[in-house]
């Protein structure tokens, strides 16, 4: 508690109070308190001035007791080192911090039994709810969790799920269509695709968007579709195969940036110039995409926004609010960089 000039105790300042005093958003205060670099120094100093003056200290435990909550939210994540997942977690953590809540990180290592066990433990443990990134549970397993009254939100569902299950994801179909239309607009007609796991929603939706763009351009569906697993190695293996064909493609759409990196590596080893001999498009727009040589043309997923939106939806469920929309699909955007160009005329063509 703080004391006013009369020595009386006053209620503790909240993060919202600090934001109003400094004339900034709650998100900006959260970034300052988390020592994020994306805040102007002048703004940082102003926020910290009010933090010191008000003696602000985040106290999720006290607030949780008042609300009969722990203010802890579990987040299941297949792996912790991948940038794709890190960006989602960062967005979720920031949104929760603004509500004086915290994340409990639960790596699943893509193991179904481990994930089911973790979910059972958080349901009967100290967390108020959960965010599930690419969950491996079946539709039936997740419906049982919902029927047990444990609130959760799925981020980027792996498999098709019941309409009753809340999901936050990205526009995979339209993003893939944009990527393919970009290659077509450059003049490419012999285009390969390297997909992810064929059973995953992201893969099937992106493949549908890819084929839709080809059909709309009156280009025959390509037989050059290679199934990968979203890892660098599968992109590399696919590229070694299609670049060895007598008539290799002039462009390739990789269904994520990791596989695009593998394609780039294989092309360099085989003396194939990107974008001179092969145009390359990825999907995700993780930070390394713009650091590659050449910088990668890719489809940007709003990863941090997905984490923030899922956290907001979860708190609406926790607060008992009526949720009219259980499916939130955030838009994707094509980012054109140096890895795509018009096809080079080949000798004998």
Q: Which key phrases capture this entry?
A:
349 residues; single chain; alpha/beta; six-stranded parallel beta sheet; six-stranded mixed beta sheet; Rossmann fold; disordered N terminus; 14 strands; 12 helices
Short description:
With about 350 residues, the protein is of the alpha/beta class. It folds into two domains: about 60-170 and about 300-330, Rossmann fold (3-Layer(aba) Sandwich); about 170-300, Response regulator (Rossmann fold, 3-Layer(aba) Sandwich).
General description of the model:
- Helix 8 runs parallel beside helix 9 (201-216).
- The longest helix is centred in the middle third of the chain and has 16 residues, at 201-216.
- Residues 1-10 and 60-67 have low confidence and may be disordered.
- The protein has helices at 15-22, 26-33, 41-54, 60-66, 83-97, 112-123, 139-147, 172-185, 201-216, 232-242, 257-269, 303-318; strands at residues 2-3, 9-10, 72-77, 102-107, 129-133, 152-155, 167-170, 191-195, 225-227, 251-254, 279-284, 297-300, 327-330, 333-335.
- Strand 3, helix 5 (83-97) and strand 4 form a beta-alpha-beta unit.
- It is of the alpha/beta class and 349 residues long.
- The termini are far apart.
- The strands form three sheets. It has a six-stranded parallel β-sheet, sandwiched between helices. Strands 9-8-10-11-12-14 form a six-stranded mixed β-sheet, sandwiched between helices.
- It has two domains: 61-170 and 302-330, 3-Layer(aba) Sandwich (Rossmann fold); 172-301, 3-Layer(aba) Sandwich (Rossmann fold), CATH 3.40.50.2300.
């Amino acid at each position: 508690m703080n004391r006013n000039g009369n020595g009386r105790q006053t209620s503790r300042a909240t993060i919202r109070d600090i934001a109003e005093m400094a004339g900034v958003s709650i998100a900006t205060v959260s970034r300052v308190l988390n020592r994020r670099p994306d805040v102007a120094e002048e703004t940082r100093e102003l926020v910290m001035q009010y933090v010191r003056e008000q003696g602000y200290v985040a106290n999720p435990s006290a607030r949780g007791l008042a609300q009969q909550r722990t203010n802890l939210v579990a987040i299941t994540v297949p792996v912790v080192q991948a940038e794709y997942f890190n960006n989602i977690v960062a967005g979720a953590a920031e949104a929760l911090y603004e509500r004086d809540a915290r994340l409990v990180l639960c790596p699943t290592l893509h193991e179904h039994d481990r994930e089911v066990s973790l979910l059972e433990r958080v349901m009967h443990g100290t967390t108020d709810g959960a965010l599930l990134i690419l969950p491996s549970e079946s539709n039936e397993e997740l419906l049982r969790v919902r029927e047990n009254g444990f609130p959760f939100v799925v981020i980027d569902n792996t498999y098709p799920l019941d309409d009753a299950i809340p999901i936050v994801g990205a526009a995979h179909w339209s993003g893939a269509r944009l990527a393919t239309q970009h290659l077509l607009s450059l003049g490419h007609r012999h285009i390969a695709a390297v997909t992810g796991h064929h059973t995953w929603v992201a893969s099937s939706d992106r493949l549908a968007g890819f084929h839709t763009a080809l059909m709309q351009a009156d280009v025959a569906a390509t037989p050059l579709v290679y199934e990968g697993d979203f890892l660098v190695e599968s992109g590399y293996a696919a590229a070694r195969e299609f670049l060895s064909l007598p008539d290799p493609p002039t462009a390739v759409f990789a269904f994520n940036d990791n596989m695009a990196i593998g394609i780039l590596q294989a092309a360099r080893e085989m003396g194939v110039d990107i974008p001179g001999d092969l145009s390359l498009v990825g999907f995700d727009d993780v930070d390394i995409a713009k650091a590659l040589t050449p910088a990668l043309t890719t489809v940007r997923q709003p990863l941090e926004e997905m984490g923030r939106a899922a956290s907001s939806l979860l708190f609406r469920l926790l607060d008992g609010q009526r949720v009219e929309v259980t499916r939130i699909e955030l838009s994707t955007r094509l980012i054109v960089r140096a890895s795509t160009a018009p096809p080079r005329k080949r000798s004998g063509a």
